[in-house]
Amino acid sequence: MKVMIYKTAEEIAEAVGRIIIKRVADEPTSAIGFATGASPVPTYEYIVNEFNKGNISFKDMKTFNLDEYCDLPVEDINSYHYFMNENLFGKIDVNPENINFLDGNAEDYDKESQRYAEAIKNAGGIKVQILGIGTNGHIGFNEPADEFTDEAFKVKLTQSTRDSNAKYFGGEEKMPKYAMTMGIGSIMRAKEIVLIATGEAKAKAIAAAVNGEVTPQCPASVLQNHPNATLFIDEAAASLLK
Ligand code: GLP
Questions:
Q1: Which of 21, 32, 116, 156 is the most exposed place for a label (fewest CB within 10 A)?
Q2: Alpha helices in 138-183 (DSSP H)
Q3: How far apart, in whole angstroms, are the C-alpha atoms of residue 122 and residue 110?
Q4: Whose CA is nearest to atom 12 of ligand 1?
Protein backbone atom coordinates (compact mmCIF):
# COMPACT_ATOMS: atom_id res chain seq x y z
CA MET A 1 0.00 0.00 0.00
CA LYS A 2 1.44 3.35 -1.05
CA VAL A 3 0.54 6.65 0.61
CA MET A 4 0.80 9.91 -1.33
CA ILE A 5 0.30 13.13 0.63
CA TYR A 6 -0.78 16.33 -1.14
CA LYS A 7 -1.38 19.92 -0.07
CA THR A 8 -4.74 20.42 -1.78
CA ALA A 9 -7.76 18.46 -2.96
CA GLU A 10 -7.10 19.86 -6.45
CA GLU A 11 -3.67 18.22 -6.56
CA ILE A 12 -5.23 14.91 -5.54
CA ALA A 13 -7.92 15.34 -8.20
CA GLU A 14 -5.29 15.86 -10.88
CA ALA A 15 -3.18 12.89 -9.75
CA VAL A 16 -6.15 10.49 -9.60
CA GLY A 17 -7.83 11.97 -12.68
CA ARG A 18 -4.66 11.36 -14.69
CA ILE A 19 -4.57 7.70 -13.65
CA ILE A 20 -8.15 7.17 -14.87
CA ILE A 21 -7.60 9.08 -18.11
CA LYS A 22 -4.35 7.24 -18.89
CA ARG A 23 -6.02 3.88 -18.22
CA VAL A 24 -8.89 4.67 -20.59
CA ALA A 25 -6.56 6.19 -23.21
CA ASP A 26 -4.38 3.05 -23.14
CA GLU A 27 -7.36 0.69 -23.27
CA PRO A 28 -10.63 2.48 -24.18
CA THR A 29 -12.87 -0.45 -23.14
CA SER A 30 -11.43 -0.56 -19.59
CA ALA A 31 -13.84 -1.11 -16.72
CA ILE A 32 -13.45 1.54 -14.04
CA GLY A 33 -14.92 1.25 -10.56
CA PHE A 34 -16.50 4.49 -9.36
CA ALA A 35 -17.26 5.78 -5.88
CA THR A 36 -19.65 8.41 -4.57
CA GLY A 37 -19.35 10.81 -1.64
CA ALA A 38 -17.66 14.20 -1.49
CA SER A 39 -14.09 12.87 -1.76
CA PRO A 40 -14.00 11.99 -5.48
CA VAL A 41 -15.98 15.06 -6.65
CA PRO A 42 -12.87 17.19 -7.51
CA THR A 43 -11.47 14.20 -9.43
CA TYR A 44 -14.69 13.97 -11.44
CA GLU A 45 -14.45 17.72 -12.13
CA TYR A 46 -10.90 17.25 -13.40
CA ILE A 47 -12.01 14.39 -15.67
CA VAL A 48 -14.95 16.42 -17.04
CA ASN A 49 -12.56 19.33 -17.76
CA GLU A 50 -10.16 17.12 -19.67
CA PHE A 51 -13.09 15.68 -21.61
CA ASN A 52 -14.34 19.19 -22.44
CA LYS A 53 -10.87 20.11 -23.71
CA GLY A 54 -11.15 17.18 -26.14
CA ASN A 55 -8.28 15.32 -24.47
CA ILE A 56 -10.10 12.02 -23.95
CA SER A 57 -13.20 10.05 -24.93
CA PHE A 58 -15.00 7.69 -22.53
CA LYS A 59 -17.30 6.29 -25.21
CA ASP A 60 -16.22 2.67 -24.73
CA MET A 61 -15.33 2.79 -21.02
CA LYS A 62 -17.34 0.45 -18.81
CA THR A 63 -18.33 1.63 -15.35
CA PHE A 64 -19.20 -0.21 -12.15
CA ASN A 65 -20.33 1.72 -9.12
CA LEU A 66 -19.45 0.52 -5.66
CA ASP A 67 -22.76 0.79 -3.92
CA GLU A 68 -26.33 2.04 -3.87
CA TYR A 69 -28.94 2.61 -1.18
CA CYS A 70 -31.80 0.16 -0.79
CA ASP A 71 -35.42 1.29 -0.76
CA LEU A 72 -34.64 4.53 -2.58
CA PRO A 73 -35.84 5.22 -6.13
CA VAL A 74 -32.94 5.73 -8.57
CA GLU A 75 -34.45 9.14 -9.47
CA ASP A 76 -34.09 10.35 -5.87
CA ILE A 77 -31.54 13.18 -5.59
CA ASN A 78 -29.73 11.18 -2.89
CA SER A 79 -29.38 8.00 -4.95
CA TYR A 80 -25.91 7.18 -6.18
CA HIS A 81 -27.38 6.79 -9.69
CA TYR A 82 -28.37 10.46 -9.48
CA PHE A 83 -25.04 11.48 -7.98
CA MET A 84 -22.98 9.84 -10.73
CA ASN A 85 -25.16 11.28 -13.47
CA GLU A 86 -24.87 14.80 -11.99
CA ASN A 87 -21.16 14.68 -11.27
CA LEU A 88 -19.73 12.62 -14.10
CA PHE A 89 -21.72 10.34 -16.39
CA GLY A 90 -24.08 13.07 -17.60
CA LYS A 91 -21.11 15.29 -18.47
CA ILE A 92 -18.95 12.90 -20.50
CA ASP A 93 -19.59 10.71 -23.55
CA VAL A 94 -19.80 7.34 -21.76
CA ASN A 95 -22.33 5.08 -23.50
CA PRO A 96 -25.28 4.65 -21.08
CA GLU A 97 -25.29 0.94 -21.94
CA ASN A 98 -21.82 0.62 -20.42
CA ILE A 99 -22.89 2.04 -17.03
CA ASN A 100 -23.43 -0.54 -14.30
CA PHE A 101 -24.93 -0.13 -10.86
CA LEU A 102 -26.04 -2.51 -8.16
CA ASP A 103 -29.83 -2.53 -7.88
CA GLY A 104 -30.65 -1.42 -4.35
CA ASN A 105 -34.26 -2.41 -4.99
CA ALA A 106 -33.57 -5.91 -6.29
CA GLU A 107 -36.13 -8.57 -5.41
CA ASP A 108 -33.41 -11.13 -4.77
CA TYR A 109 -30.17 -9.69 -3.40
CA ASP A 110 -28.20 -12.93 -3.90
CA LYS A 111 -29.16 -13.05 -7.56
CA GLU A 112 -28.30 -9.38 -7.90
CA SER A 113 -24.88 -10.05 -6.38
CA GLN A 114 -24.26 -12.88 -8.87
CA ARG A 115 -25.42 -10.72 -11.76
CA TYR A 116 -22.96 -7.95 -10.80
CA ALA A 117 -20.06 -10.38 -10.35
CA GLU A 118 -20.76 -11.85 -13.82
CA ALA A 119 -21.01 -8.39 -15.39
CA ILE A 120 -17.65 -7.38 -13.90
CA LYS A 121 -16.07 -10.60 -15.13
CA ASN A 122 -17.53 -10.16 -18.63
CA ALA A 123 -16.13 -6.62 -18.71
CA GLY A 124 -12.65 -8.05 -18.18
CA GLY A 125 -12.45 -7.18 -14.48
CA ILE A 126 -12.12 -3.72 -12.93
CA LYS A 127 -8.90 -2.04 -14.04
CA VAL A 128 -8.94 0.89 -11.62
CA GLN A 129 -11.21 1.08 -8.57
CA ILE A 130 -11.75 4.50 -6.99
CA LEU A 131 -12.56 4.51 -3.28
CA GLY A 132 -13.37 6.96 -0.52
CA ILE A 133 -13.26 6.00 3.14
CA GLY A 134 -15.85 6.35 5.88
CA THR A 135 -14.95 7.85 9.25
CA ASN A 136 -15.29 4.29 10.62
CA GLY A 137 -12.90 2.92 7.98
CA HIS A 138 -15.61 1.61 5.66
CA ILE A 139 -14.99 1.23 1.93
CA GLY A 140 -18.01 1.15 -0.32
CA PHE A 141 -20.56 0.33 2.36
CA ASN A 142 -18.46 -2.45 3.90
CA GLU A 143 -18.97 -1.50 7.51
CA PRO A 144 -16.71 -2.73 10.34
CA ALA A 145 -17.55 -6.42 10.74
CA ASP A 146 -16.29 -9.75 12.06
CA GLU A 147 -15.31 -11.07 8.64
CA PHE A 148 -14.19 -9.74 5.30
CA THR A 149 -16.94 -10.15 2.71
CA ASP A 150 -16.47 -11.35 -0.86
CA GLU A 151 -19.05 -10.47 -3.55
CA ALA A 152 -21.74 -7.77 -3.36
CA PHE A 153 -24.30 -8.00 -0.57
CA LYS A 154 -27.04 -6.12 1.27
CA VAL A 155 -25.74 -4.39 4.38
CA LYS A 156 -27.34 -2.69 7.37
CA LEU A 157 -25.75 0.74 7.70
CA THR A 158 -24.07 1.51 11.02
CA GLN A 159 -24.96 4.44 13.23
CA SER A 160 -21.67 6.15 12.36
CA THR A 161 -22.46 6.00 8.63
CA ARG A 162 -26.00 7.16 9.25
CA ASP A 163 -24.66 10.09 11.30
CA SER A 164 -22.22 11.03 8.52
CA ASN A 165 -24.76 10.84 5.68
CA ALA A 166 -28.00 11.99 7.35
CA LYS A 167 -27.21 15.59 6.36
CA TYR A 168 -27.89 14.78 2.71
CA PHE A 169 -31.34 13.44 3.51
CA GLY A 170 -32.42 16.30 5.77
CA GLY A 171 -32.63 14.08 8.84
CA GLU A 172 -31.71 10.59 9.89
CA GLU A 173 -35.28 9.34 9.85
CA LYS A 174 -35.44 9.94 6.10
CA MET A 175 -32.26 8.01 5.41
CA PRO A 176 -32.32 4.42 4.13
CA LYS A 177 -31.29 1.79 6.67
CA TYR A 178 -29.76 -0.59 4.15
CA ALA A 179 -27.54 -0.47 1.10
CA MET A 180 -26.22 -2.86 -1.51
CA THR A 181 -22.42 -2.75 -1.79
CA MET A 182 -19.62 -4.48 -3.60
CA GLY A 183 -17.90 -6.77 -1.10
CA ILE A 184 -14.27 -6.63 -0.03
CA GLY A 185 -13.44 -9.48 -2.44
CA SER A 186 -14.95 -7.66 -5.42
CA ILE A 187 -12.99 -4.51 -4.50
CA MET A 188 -9.72 -6.39 -3.94
CA ARG A 189 -9.94 -8.07 -7.36
CA ALA A 190 -9.47 -4.69 -9.09
CA LYS A 191 -6.05 -4.45 -10.76
CA GLU A 192 -5.36 -1.06 -9.20
CA ILE A 193 -7.04 0.74 -6.29
CA VAL A 194 -6.93 4.48 -5.62
CA LEU A 195 -8.39 5.75 -2.35
CA ILE A 196 -9.07 9.45 -1.83
CA ALA A 197 -9.37 11.03 1.62
CA THR A 198 -9.23 14.66 2.68
CA GLY A 199 -9.79 16.48 5.95
CA GLU A 200 -9.20 15.86 9.62
CA ALA A 201 -12.39 13.82 10.02
CA LYS A 202 -10.70 11.01 8.06
CA ALA A 203 -7.38 11.06 9.98
CA LYS A 204 -8.31 8.34 12.48
CA ALA A 205 -9.63 5.98 9.81
CA ILE A 206 -6.54 6.57 7.62
CA ALA A 207 -4.17 5.88 10.54
CA ALA A 208 -6.02 2.65 11.36
CA ALA A 209 -6.02 1.59 7.69
CA VAL A 210 -2.29 2.26 7.21
CA ASN A 211 -0.67 1.64 10.60
CA GLY A 212 -3.17 -0.71 12.20
CA GLU A 213 -3.51 -4.46 11.80
CA VAL A 214 -5.42 -5.85 8.83
CA THR A 215 -8.84 -6.45 10.32
CA PRO A 216 -12.46 -6.41 9.11
CA GLN A 217 -13.08 -4.01 12.01
CA CYS A 218 -11.33 -1.43 9.80
CA PRO A 219 -12.33 -2.59 6.30
CA ALA A 220 -9.89 -0.22 4.52
CA SER A 221 -6.96 -1.96 6.28
CA VAL A 222 -7.38 -4.84 3.81
CA LEU A 223 -5.78 -2.60 1.19
CA GLN A 224 -2.44 -3.35 2.90
CA ASN A 225 -2.74 -6.75 1.18
CA HIS A 226 -3.38 -5.37 -2.31
CA PRO A 227 -0.39 -5.36 -4.72
CA ASN A 228 -1.30 -1.99 -6.28
CA ALA A 229 -3.27 0.20 -3.87
CA THR A 230 -2.45 3.88 -3.32
CA LEU A 231 -3.94 6.31 -0.85
CA PHE A 232 -4.19 9.89 -2.13
CA ILE A 233 -4.64 12.03 0.96
CA ASP A 234 -4.13 15.57 2.17
CA GLU A 235 -2.08 16.66 5.16
CA ALA A 236 -5.09 16.80 7.47
CA ALA A 237 -6.11 13.22 6.64
CA ALA A 238 -2.45 12.19 7.10
CA SER A 239 -2.07 13.97 10.44
CA LEU A 240 -2.29 10.85 12.65
CA LEU A 241 -0.04 8.62 10.53
CA LYS A 242 3.04 7.21 12.25
C1 GLP B 1 -20.27 6.91 1.79
C2 GLP B 1 -20.02 5.95 0.60
C3 GLP B 1 -18.58 5.60 0.48
C4 GLP B 1 -17.77 6.86 0.66
C5 GLP B 1 -17.84 7.32 2.07
C6 GLP B 1 -17.15 8.65 2.36
O7 GLP B 1 -21.10 6.44 2.74
N8 GLP B 1 -20.79 4.75 0.60
O9 GLP B 1 -18.34 4.96 -0.77
O10 GLP B 1 -16.42 6.61 0.36
O11 GLP B 1 -19.15 7.29 2.57
O12 GLP B 1 -17.86 9.73 1.85
P13 GLP B 1 -17.27 11.19 1.75
O14 GLP B 1 -16.28 11.14 0.63
O15 GLP B 1 -18.45 12.06 1.43
O16 GLP B 1 -16.64 11.51 3.04
A1: 156
A2: 159-169
A3: 18
A4: 37
